[in-house]
Amino acid sequence: MDFLSSLKKAKSRRILILSAGSLQSGIAGLYLECKAESWSILSQAFLPYPQTTQALITQLLESPDTPLGLALITHLDAKISGLFLECAAALLKSIPKTQLQPHCIIANSLIIFSQEKPGGLSGAPHTFEIGSTLPLSRLYNVPILTNMLADRRAAHEGLEVLAKAQEGPILAINLGLISRMFAIDGTTKKVIADIDCGPGTCLINHSAIECGATEGFDRDGKIAATGTVDTRLCETLSADPIFSFTDSIPLSIWRCMSLLEHEALKDLLPADKLATLTALSSLSIYKSFKRTPLASSSPSIVWISGGGANNLTLVEFLSAYFHPAQVKNVSTLGIPSESFIPLCLGLSLNESLNKAKAALTDELPHLGFWITGH
């Protein structure tokens, strides 16, 4: 493929990365420049979903069996496609002319549904995504890599690039709607575990709305800080089968939402319920960590990212569970908290291109699907 040959030979690669988040989120954008031995973030942007768009996404993700008309699906697809264009324009707005043209784009549409391939078949799972990338292709006329988030391993090489700059074993937790944990060996700097490890912020956000949070989430964890954790109920909920992480069913938002039907939760005051669910998110992460290969070589720092990294009460609970390890936001490394996974994807693509260049081949591992024409 000619475009891969050009990308491979480039001394400096500029990669525009756009990722559609799910509930209470938006489009996270990053403009990345990669050189031989270094990388830098040229710009970053985040566009929250409009309220009407958010309502449709909530309906699709929290109630997957609810029928939606073709017109609504088409409307949502067009809206997210338009937000891709807006975010890209915001990223490039203040960029010097010499760096204005990206060499390629990574665009991750909104994943509504994901299912592993039947019969033990290997490869990325089947996904249903919303948000066309064709307008991006027409406007920028560069190769676009799509569907990258469908394969969990796609972020690994980028994460390993980041890990080389850190000492010892590394634990990185992305606190999205579903929490995702990466464990990295301290010697090889290779990812040795990558698991969904709990409900993240999906239950927290739902409970915050019940407490009157008009933004749809508990800003800084202030409401949860006023409540009292029901520790016995927290332990009971953390023992639910959805936290076994041993079956073939992915941990999804709607599976986590089933925990809200627990009778004891319904008896709690709103702030106490929110505090308990915030503690549950932390406890499920810690219990998952104890099942990873890193459990016997406790890391000195636990890096956190995602929207939940801004919830100070959630961070406080995590700090208590992981003591004496320090819990730190990746923003202290100069990495935008909301764009940690997108950054890893960009670095993964760059590393794959570097390896192909060294091996004198145009063959790349399957990272997603390329769009190369109008």
> How many strands, what sense, and barrel or not for the largest sheet?
6 strands, mixed
Report how far apart the termini are. 16 Å
Helix content: 25-40%
Number of strands: 13
Describe the secondary structure blueprint for this structure.
Layout: H1 2-9, E1 13-20, E2 26-34, E3 39-48, H2 51-62, H3 70-92, E4 104-108, E5 110-115, E6 126-130, H4 134-140, E7 144-146, H5 156-163, E8 170-175, E9 179-184, E10 191-198, H6 202-210, H7 231-238, H8 253-257, H9 263-266, H10 270-289, E11 301-305, H11 312-322, E12 326-329, H12 340-358, E13 369-371
Parallel strand pairs: 1-4, 4-7, 8-11, 11-12
Antiparallel strand pairs: 1-2, 2-3, 5-6, 7-13, 8-9, 9-10
Task: Write a structural description.
By secondary structure, this protein is α/β, with parallel strands linked by helices. It contains 12 helices and 13 strands. It is globular. 44% of the residues are buried.
Keywords:
12 helices, alpha/beta, single chain, 374 residues, globular, 36% helix, 13 strands
